[in-house]
Amino acid sequence: MRQPLRYPWLDLDVDDRSAPVIAVRVDADGTKGEVPDHSHRKGQLVVSFGGGVTCRVPDGLWMVPPHCAVWIPGAMAHSNRATANARLFFVYVEPELVDLPDCCCTISISPLLRELIIELSDGAQHDEARRERLIGVLLGELPRMPVQQLHLPFSDEPRLKRIAAALADNPADRRTLAQWAGQLALSESSLARLVAKETGLTFGRWRQQLHLIVAIRELAAGASVQQVSAALGYESVTAFITMFRKALGKPPAAYINSVAREQKVTGIT
Q1: What distance in Å separates the CA atoms of residue 69 and residue 93, rounded to the nearest whole number?
Q2: What is the mean pLDDT of residues 30-36?
Q3: Which range of residues forms the domain containing residue 179?
Q4: What's the CA gap between 66 and 176, in Å, rounded?
Q5: 82/18 same-domain check
Q6: For residue 267, is it left (φ>0), alpha (ψ between -120 and 50) or beta?
Q7: N or C of the chain: less Cβ packing under 10 Å?
């Protein structure tokens, strides 16, 4: 059962605060947590320093790997789900103050930005001049961060919503495009065109992107490569590792180990 993520202030309303940047450390309390659908005027960075986090918006699902963030533009409805070991910061920004896209994106967070976010989340700070300087550096650095391709596009098209729901419930579902087409009373070519039109991806690439998002989330939560491979329905661990390496440039263990090394450097516990 998922529990609400715990904010440091029970009465937090970011749009009532005039500060250009508000950074908040959010505690998952050792259980899977979520923030249900909501929106606010300020833009939001969902920042992960450990564990796995996913953000859902009307047209897609975004993965927040450790030491990355998802940018959610102001006024966009969204929900956040976190694994039990997640270490999160929410950073709220006045939209006109930062040169970030008007659509969601996953961005890397440099060591400098991590330290700035930690400092700005410290509610005990009383040096406003220093705080303003930190905010200025943060707003200048954010647009320079590289974008990560960890996004699963969604569609409101009823037939694709049916496929997406089935794969989200059971990522190991290995039905082929032809099998799905038969169930939806479409030809295989018609379904292929529909998937490409609505998501910008082939069916195989779209399903692989879902697998990557699930894999990173579960690996970050502590699952083994073997467990994740089985949960995603791969015939062999080798096949899963090959897919992961081709997509992200590193095999799963190396990817997670590099994240763990960054956590030690950052000192987030």
Answers
A1: 13
A2: 64
A3: 155-260
A4: 32
A5: yes
A6: left
A7: N
Tokens 């259980």 correspond to: 31
CA distances from 169 to 142, 160, 209, 216, 220 (A): 34, 14, 15, 17, 19
Residues 219/255, Cβ–Cβ less than 8 Å: yes
For residue 225, what is the domain's CATH number? 1.10.10.60
Question: CB count, 10 Å around CB of 201?
Answer: 15
Q: What is the pTM of this model?
A: 0.73
Bridging pattern class, strands 53-57 and 43-50: unpaired
The domain tally of the chain equals: 2
Residue 267 covered by a domain: no
Average pLDDT of the chain, as a whole number: 84
Residue 269: band (very low, low, confident or very high) from pLDDT cuts 50, 70, 90: very low
- Statement to judge: residues 117 and 167 lie in one domain: no
The number of C-alpha atoms within 13 Å of 13 and in the hemisphere containing its C-beta is: 3
Give the pLDDT confidence of 160-216 residue by residue, as tens digits: 989 988 988 898 999 999 999 999 999 999 999 999 999 999 999 999 998 998 898
Shared domain for 66 and 165, answered yes or no, is no
Tokens of 242: 């090959």
**What is the Cα Rg of the chain in Å?**
19
**Is the domain of 179 the same as that of 124?**
no
What tens digit of pLDDT does each residue of 212-265 get? Answer: 988 988 887 788 999 999 999 999 999 999 999 998 888 998 887 776 555 444
Q: How is residue 110 written in tokens?
A: 């440099």
pLDDT of res. 1: 45
